[in-house]
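Bit of a strange request maybe. I'm writing a small parser for structure token strings and I need a real example to test against, not something I typed by hand. Could someone generate the tokens for this chain?
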Amino acid sequence: MTRIDVSNRQKSLWVSASRLRRLVEFVAAAERRGIDAVDVAIVDADEIASLNRRYLGKDRETDVLSFDLSEAGSRGVSAQVIVCGDVAADEGPRHGLSAEDELMLYVIHGLLHLMGYDDADAEQAERMKTRQEQILAEFNRSRKLTDDL
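Reply from user aminoacidic:
Good idea to test on real output. This should exercise your parser:
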């Protein structure tokens, strides 16, 4: 049974929980992976900085943190993906995106990490960036087609 939970603990931008759930399902389908349970938390800059310090030893805010919670032998992804609404609100316009689309990229990025992608070097980072942008474009296109029906 698939479970996708969304919690919003920030005030920088409004985000549709149902759209985020659909996005998680879309990423899983695009990568041909199953989902057991995914929790997406949208937090503010202070909270993500605190989590980044606690879990990664980095004393600064970041855009996304993802934690693999899958059990050995599990076929589907079990994870927590934490994204920062404040960072998305600041960075989206700098990248020519809405804050919501920027946040969606963070969710996709976190999920791709959990599905085996890495961005440790320039080549891997470019491959991952290309894939997350492709998934977001396909997701938005599929949503538009559905909305137009």
